[in-house]
Amino acid sequence: MPNITPEMLAFGFIWYVAFLFSTTCHEAAHALVAKIGGDTTAALGGQVSLNPVPHIQREPWGMVVIPLLSYVVTGSMIGWASAPFDPLWERRHPHRSAWMALAGPAANYSLMLLAVIGIRVGTAMQWLGRDPGTGQLTFPTLVLFVFFSLNLLLGTFNLLPVPPLDGSTVIMLFMSEERAHKYLDWLRGNSYAMLGLLVGLVVFRQFYQYVEAFATNLLLGH
Q1: Which of 5, 127, 150, 197 has the fewest CB atoms found within 10 Å of its own CB?
Q2: C-alpha closest to that of 26 among 44, 60, 49
């Protein structure tokens, strides 16, 4: 267990607020696109909202308990959330379901790009940087970098084409309706969620550092 210091608590607070807001946006995007596509399941649960409460009520462990506990124990933060959908709607409209799945990572990438704009504008205007006295990043600078890093990670991880991640549904965009139905028979007819998640984590750890370096150099110039 890492030593708990005021700096660790402050950074944990920033990271958790960013996690809570980013995850809420991710799930709200799922719910909104599903509603537009004809499935009101998540909307009726109040999840077409940037209010985190309905999302926390659905996944209190993944959005509150585990993120905070993992940060205290390991110094890093993990968690999850989910939005309900109608399996019959997915069967009838596999491509709409794929767009619903893509909406979550798209929301994360949108937040990442907003953070990039904030960093670039703030740096150009000399609003951001390091504290002259301590050499530490100023509070707004740290917040923007956390939002950039977290949303790049969330968007990329969720696009992995393994169940239960969004990418396993997104790939139906590249299939015909008939092939998508057969794919759904396989995807929903097997309990591959835990295995898929483990495989996703292993694969993600192998390549994400290159994605992060590329995105940082391309978007932030360092």
Answers
A1: 5
A2: 49
